[in-house]
Amino acid sequence: MGRVNDDQWLDEALNEAIHSDDTQPDFEKWKLQHPEAVEKLTSRTPPTQRPLRIRRIIMNATFVKLAAAAVIAIAVAVGGAVGIYQHVQPYNKVTPLPAIEVSEIEMHPAAVRGPTTYELRDGSIVKLSAGAEILPLAQKGKRGFEHVAGQIDVTVAKGKGEFIVTTPYGQVKALGTQFTMNMMDDVAANTKERVQLLAVKVREGSVEVRNTQGTTTLTANQDIVVALNAPPYDFNKDEKLPKELRARIQSMINALKAKDGAAWVANYNINYVYKLAKGQVAYDPNLFGGTAEDAENLKKGLGNVGSPEELAKMVASSLNSNGGDIYITSIVMNKAGDHAKAKCVSKSGNRTVVLGPQWHNFDGGWWQIDD
Amino acid sequence: MRIESLEQSDAVLVEAAQQGRLDSFGALYQRYHNPIVALAYAQLGDKHAAEDAAQEVFAIACRDLRSLRERDKFGAWLGGICRNVTRQMRRVKTRTAPLPGPDATACVPAEEAGEPEQEERRDAVRRAVWQLPDAERELVVMRYFNGFSQARISQVLDLTPAAVNGRLTRAKRRIAERLERAGFGSRSWDA
Predict the structure, then answer these.
(1) Would you say domain B10-190 falls under CATH 1.20.1300.10?
(2) Based on the domain organization, do A141 and A260 belong to the same domain?
(3) Does residue A173 form part of some domain?
(4) What is the C-alpha to C-alpha distance for residues A109 and B133, in angstroms, rounded to an integer?
(5) Is residue A36 classed exposed, middle or buried when 0-12, 13-18 and 19+ CB atoms within 10 A define those classes?
(6) Are A10 and B175 inside 8 Å of each other by CB?
């Protein structure tokens, strides 16, 4: 082998083989050749009105942020001023060309990119979302494809043998089934860290998710997350976690997906938070996810609240969830077995957020203490 | 000394163009024409066809620009249109002629073509590039076709700079390995 890692020769080789510097953009010529397009851009007709998508502002609010929001809401209500919260999130629609039917046999595998619906040779259907990409297998007799990026929805044609989807995270093997795969390679909007994972969810039948670190079989309505160089992870099957904690985590996920503020706040020990706001209990970082300063701000913001029920309603009404997908990638328990911290990825549209919810066992049960 | 960027952002140009300013669309055309030709070339393997594709991409973009809401994502939006256009061209091409591969003469003018051995090496490099998965081939072609910056590549391919770097490194490693196996490795190039 030569100097594979010393790639100066390779740069030269690629430059020599591919480089082209004789392409000069000529906009004037292009304008003359495309009068219809120019006319459409420069005409004074108003742009197409699209339905506006209304979203809540944030999802990962801590209690302190919620308290601040509540104070603002109260102040606004008292002052009779303008409402807050909802803002308009315009959306971008990439105008796709007419869908291409790719039922004929292709001589070479070509990447297929979404948004589109693609029928494989065996009759299996792959729906690709915008940004998704697959690479159909070229070998005859093999069923499946390579999943390169994005979210896809797969319906495997039944009764034709093994069907395998390969990914950098491992392979997914299926028999006559329906499942969704979401391969993410994003930068988190809040922490700016890179988020790479594969999420698989089965709608019908079963699939086997396998990589060098482990194998898991999923049946209908089960899902799993696979990070790079890590075994497939499903917290519901993590025997290290107490059953009640798993239920609490699932309850948080369900509430966020359903945007159900009451269900979400029910995961917190609202009596403790009420007492903390009233100054009736001391701040304890194991029981309240924020800092001591956050706890002080909580007292200032919600010290006048009348009852735990009133506090619960205020917090519930302040939930800002955009209802996207929630993926738990890992959960770490402390040695004492009474505290758990998760790494969680929330994805809604193009927005990815990394969260670190925590739970603690106190007052006779597992309670979420931070989101 | 304070250095300030003299280049208007995509978002500013797109907004002006959406209000009917053709000169702003012209600036976007100048900025993205060559990257889009390179992206189309990566898909089609034919430089003339790639230039035709780029013309069509800008025609579609011009017609539909007002629908673009995320103005700072203009490059990625254009890249998406380009992939759709080239897919349709490939589909038409498969019915009438062989599917794409690197056209040996597209990038190297006849007067620059060297000895047969040198040309054989270039062919080997192009073959190695065209054997890459689409996503890696796009990156390699964009990087070497016209020396586009990492930032411009990131915009058009809608990748983070880190992802561009990572994929490019992987792609180059694959190319190097294929060239070594084909007898056109580093020593051959030094010769």
Answers:
(1) no
(2) no
(3) yes
(4) 9
(5) exposed
(6) yes
- Please say which residue of A180, A203, A232 terminates a domain: A232
CB–CB of B34 and A23 under 8 A? yes
Q: In whole angstroms, what is the distance from residue A285 CA to residue B176 CA? A: 54
- What is the C-alpha radius of gyration for chain A, rounded to an integer number of angstroms? 26
- For residue B88, give the nearest of A192, A236, A97, A268 by alpha carbon: A97
Q: Smallest CA–CA separation between A137 and chain B, in Å?
A: 12
Instruction: Give the tens place of pLDDT for each residue, B101-152.
Output: 555 444 444 444 456 677 788 888 888 898 888 888 999 998 988 778 888 8
Q: Report residue A183: phi and psi, to 5°.
A: -100, 120
| Final residue belonging to a domain, choices A232, A251, A279 | A232
At residue A73, the pLDDT reads: 43
Torsion sign, CA atoms A348, A349, A351, A352: positive
Interface of B with A in 86-115 (CB under 8 A): 87-88, 90-91, 94, 98-99, 106-109
The alpha-carbon gap from A240 to the nearest alpha carbon of chain B, in Å, equals 35
Distance from CA of A237 to the nearest CA of B (A): 32
Task: Indicate the residue type of A60.
Answer: N
Q: What is the pTM of this model?
A: 0.47
* pLDDT at residue A244 is higher than 90: yes
Candidates A226, A102, A231, A234; CA nearest to A167 is: A226
Of A4, A40, A47, the CB nearest to B180: A4
Q: From the CA atom positions of chain B, what is the Rg in Å?
A: 18
The one-letter amino acid code at A244 reads E
B133 and A146: CB-CB below 8 Å? yes
Measured between CA atoms, how close is B136 to chain A, in angstroms? 11
Which residues on chain B are in Cβ contact (under 8 Å) with A110? Answer: 87, 90, 99, 134
Contact B55, A33 (CB under 8 A): yes
